[in-house]
Amino acid sequence: MSVIGASTIYGLTWLVVLIIPMLAVVQAISAEVAAVSRKGLEDCVRHRYGRFWGLVALVAVVSVTIITLAADLEGGAAALQVLTHLDYRWFILPFAAATAVLLVFGHYAQIENILKYISLVFFAYVASAIIAKPNWGDVLRNVFLPHWTWNAAYTSGAVAMLGTTLTAYAYVWETIEVAEERPPLRRLGLVQAEAALGMVFAGIVFFFTVVATGATLGVHHKDVQTAQDAAIALAPLAGPFASVLFGTGLLASALLAVPVLAGTNAYVMAEMFGWRKSLDRDFAHARRFYWAMLISLAIGTAVAYAGVSPIKLLFLASIAGGIGTPITLTLMLLVAGDSKVMGKRRRAPPALLIAGWAANAVIIGACALYFYQLLTGTGS
To answer: What is the domain range of residue 280?
Structure first.
């Protein structure tokens, strides 16, 4: 989001506002699929549409998740660089190893509850955006009078924004969590509301992140190349402590994301190949499941050492997320409307499905434009 705000200023704020209901709809659908079917998305696709489409979903999720995993490992390492002033490359392997130990021997759910509160520092962007005194007339004009600038920065920024927020692992993980939780169907509305509300709060943070970086970096035409550059957006609020505040939030975000990404890969593989699966099981009773997580972490670590800077890799991971999302989202929407999976009475409501397909169409359109510009060289 920092890169997007710096490169487009307030030009894509309208898309952030549009994404908020899209996020709520997608998470509500994923919660319904899991609560009704009692299965994760990969399980649903494989059982209903066969092994081939199960493999398609698996490849779509795992390939994007590995890139995102590498990016978040680098992001966590970059946060430690901000906090310690040591080269981030010293932290990638220890960070991955610590995550592996946590997943195999620890209780991630308990630690997650603590980290969620630490990641609330990103709400500092809300205060920073206000204190930075952006031109609110420009902000509102861009929100309510959307326009499109025909250049690569806008198109790649749009795809990255969609990929960051509507990334496949978020709603696939939602189906995994709800399927394991097995809530009674009478609580379905509450489960959906909780999932959607979390996305609304996230969307608000995304919006103010774009405004804050647009007001502090974008208007001065400064690119975001490093984590220190991104921290400048918090300077109006935190002053000399902006780097510490940003680093703490980025580290908490990575600590939350990396185990979920590795776990998502393990779950979709286990669902595809019929392995025992659960983070509640110990290593001895779910060996292949845990090995899938550890191998995902190892591959992500290798990619993180490929020499791409943390901020650039995070942006590329967002692009990959945007490109991969239509595949799994299309499959999830088909499952949600399929009476053979959901039952005739429990299919997702037509209005919810229409909204889901509309969201999918927006992502597909952005990806099509991105590839058109990439192949023709226009907009550069």
So the answer is: 2-376
